Amino acid sequence: MSLRYLPEYAQAVRFSLDLATKEAEHLRYSESTLFSKPIDLEWVKSLNTRPEVAEKVEAFISRFGRLQDHLGEKLLPRFANLVGENSKTLLDTLAFAEKVGVLSSADAFIVARKLRNTLVYEYMYDTQIFLDSLLAAQQACHLFFSIIEKTEAEVDQLGVQR
């Protein structure tokens, strides 16, 4: 009999997938409400006078960062462990995830990782950088959602029980 995966990692992977799915649902909600209307430079400049919208921005940024952290620090490393890959660094994990097809681009993930800092620190200082980062984060959400879907499909294909 040959093992398709290491069973001692199965529960941790399923837990991480469940949590990532829940976090993604919250991020999808924030994304859909925040980007329901076009966002431009004037919209960003008006955030100082529209606290209800600024609160939506904060929720989006927080959820974006939380999901990105979870994918890079929990889900992808645990998936790698599940299939016997012993990645020591985030770069190793991303390279592995890209190689097996659960991540379309390690470079895109790294760019998305840097976005969080820009979103947090440029929020009140440089409206153009903030706008560009916000729009890039919207696109990065789809990368995150895809990682979850592809990882779940791989885990299911391996036969890891729910």
Account of the 3D structure:
This protein is an all-alpha fold and 162 residues long. The chain has one domain (8-158). It contains six helices and no strands. The model has no long low-confidence stretch (mean pLDDT 94). The chain has helices spanning 10-34, 41-45, 51-82, 90-100, 106-121, 127-158.
How do the strands and helices of this protein lay out in sequence?
Elements: H1 10-34, H2 41-45, H3 51-82, H4 90-100, H5 106-121, H6 127-158
Helix pairs in contact: 1-3, 1-6, 3-4, 3-5, 3-6, 5-6
Question: If you compute it from the alpha carbons, what radius of gyration comes out, rounded to the nearest whole angstrom?
Answer: 17 Å
Integer average pLDDT: 94
Please provide the count of β strands.
Answer: 0
How would you classify the quaternary structure? single chain
Structural key phrases:
162 residues; mainly alpha; 0% strand
Question: TL;DR of this structure?
Answer:
The protein has 6 helices and no strands. It has 162 residues and is mostly helical. The chain has one domain (8-158).
